[in-house]
């Protein structure tokens, strides 16, 4: 449902913010730290946008299996990252996961696009895709430098 789509997008953005907050706090490589700050900012903006859209459409985000899986995956990723020693290992793990997360999010957006007929939601998804692609490209470039 559209409420499920909103919830998935909300949880994906919140997970990215929570994960990237660790990068802001613990990354030692300046490029990694800067990327983490950008992720907190950009995904915060995207999260505000989806919340506004949900209000406009009078949708209450509705949990589903995909949301539950995303929440579990976010917690596991955060736990794994917290287990890394601050320094090169942490920065490397953070960037590898950023590449994975953004590729998964891009795939997810493509999937969600097919699950809604709501023009506003489709527009929001269409607006998010190039941003997520840009994040993915940046993450790959930084990951290559950190490796």
Descriptive notes:
The chain has 147 residues and is mainly alpha-helical. It contains five helices and no strands. The protein is elongated, with a radius of gyration of 15 Å. The model has no long low-confidence stretch (mean pLDDT 93).
Give a brief outline of the structure.
Helix content is 84%, strand content 0%. The protein has 147 residues and is an all-alpha fold. The longest helix has 28 residues.
Largest sheet, strands/sense/barrel: none
Helix content: over 70%
N-to-C terminal Cα separation, in Å? 41 Å
Structure annotation, total helices: 5
Provide the low-confidence segments as ranges: none
Oligomer classification: single chain
Helix/strand-derived class? Answer: mainly alpha
Shape: elongated
Helix-strand pattern, N to C? HHHHH
Beta content comes to: under 5%
| Structure summary, number of beta strands | 0
Reconstruct the topology from this structure.
Elements: H1 2-26, H2 30-56, H3 65-82, H4 88-113, H5 119-146
Give me some keywords for this one.
147 residues, mainly alpha, 5 helices
